[in-house]
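Following up on my earlier message about iron/sulfur cluster. Here are the inputs again, as you asked, copied directly from the submission form:
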Amino acid sequence: MYTEPLQNATLWLERGLNKLFSQKYNPFYYHGALPNFFIWALFISGLLLFAYYQPTLATAYASVRYITYELPFGNLFRSIHRYASDGMMIFVILHMFRVWFTDRYREYRIVPWVTGVVLLIITFIVGLSGYLLIWDQEAVTLANMTFNLVGKTPFVGAALAEALMAGKMITDYTLTRMMFLHLGIPLFMMFMLWLHYLRITRPVSEPPLALVVMLSGVLFLFSAAFPVELGVLTNMSDPAAAPLLTAVSPNVYFDLLYAWPQYLAAHNVAPLLVVLLVIAVPVGLLILPYLQKKALRDQFAVVTRENCTGCSLCYNDCPYEAIEMVDRGNDGTRFKRLAVVDPGRCANCGLCVGACAFKAIEIPRRDTNNVLAEIEAALTVS
Amino acid sequence: MTTENPKLIGLVCERSVDFKGHLDDEGNMLDHPSVKIIRVPCSGQIQPVMLETALKNGANGTFALGCRMGDCHYREGNKFCRDRLIGKRMPKLKPSVDKRRVQGYWLSAVEYDKLSELVGQFVEDCKSLPAPEVKSTAKAAK
Ligand code: HEM
Ligand code: SF4
Ligand code: SF4
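Thanks, got it. Here's what our run produced:
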């Protein structure tokens, strides 16, 4: 399987990190929880910015300048918000690569994977709309080129660009629309996260306190030491006259994450090709799980009705919400409930086997009786 | 009293330590030939009764091996296994079991070197324990 070397590389990296952080605080073991940390940091730092930001073409830049240079602690909050957004992107992408490299992204995990791809798109839209809100020269240019590229999308381009711009050209409403995307889409993100966790029993959604304190400290100190700057705005009256984004900006994240399609377009790559490239990323991610052979060939845990006491221990332990405790009706036993396995969700992992004290549940690929027989055989030989 | 050549049974998650090239045809470790490795899909599948069976049938020691805490492929299997070994989760290891003869190791696929070291230590420790009584009815009948 092609993921095996990738998995080993990840494990070697984690082996090193275990030495550095200890196993308990290894950030790689909180790959899903760390984006959540940044969501909170963004929410809190964003509140203050939201209070002072004004979404009109004439005042947006001035309000950001006020926040940056005059409002007490304004720039600290703005810097925290910016760096937290970079952290968010980095850790969401890290999370994605880790679940992919360690083969945690297909079959019974298809729901978290697909909702994850949606979350990734959402995160990008929120990030991009945030950059546009600043409305300095870079933002104006990026806005122009983004709307232009979106307009080149086959079939739906014109309508999509109009929806994004809230009209046929950039107006005050455009910034209101960006503001909506920047604040409203995160609400949708909460809904997607609910779906993301739907099939995961006890998701590890918070990093341990020590990591939270450490990350908050780093974020805070970094923001205080390297406050973000505000670019210039030369062409407020005529956004369309803004220069092209051809040079690499000092913000690497910005370039790598949001601006690369614009660079391609500015370097004479056909817009249609750029649009297709952008679309290819999520589509490729969605296809990914189907490129590998099914590992388990539709096997799942099987309950032996006569042995099951309805004790729920397997139900508690199942990591993918695959067991349901149902009313067993009047079947001659004194027990009220029965464990039932949902084949589509079952990971064939055997955790339920380890939980059951009554030999009532087995996974076909490793029968308990065989394990016991092997143990006895190993000891009688010698 | 000491035991010359203690026999150990290791119940091993197939996603944790990679034994490729480290086992003989019978599944004994090349580094420690008296240690037999038996694979299960996840350490979360290991029932205390499996470890008890090993000891009842004359193993000098037995261990469970799962992935690093925090990195179980099935999310929580190793944690549950550990909690069963230390008596914090049902079904628990019987209190009568000699805890010196039971170990849990939590290592990733690329940590064979560490495991070999730990198992070597365990083998040494078992040498200083008295030979176990064989309680299995199957053996007693022979
Ligand atoms: C907003 C960003 C995201 C957040 C806050 C988030 C959070 C989480 C959390 C807390 C878990 C549970 C981890 C555990 O308990 O083991 C999880 C699992 C998962 N996530 Fe995400 N996630 C995000 C984005 C993504 C993305 C972009 C992808 C991939 C495209 C993804 C794919 C997955 C998969 C496949 C799992 C299941 C892993 C397993 O079952 O072991 N997630 N996520
Ligand atoms: S643990 Fe065993 S006995 Fe209890 S509900 Fe599950 S299958 Fe039934
Ligand atoms: S094997 Fe058992 S514990 Fe694992 S997913 Fe299936 S039902 Fe749940």
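One observation from looking it over: The pocket of iron/sulfur cluster (ligand 2) is lined by residues A 303, 308-314, 339, 355-356, 358, 360-361 (CB under 6 Å). Hope that helps, and feel free to reply on this thread.
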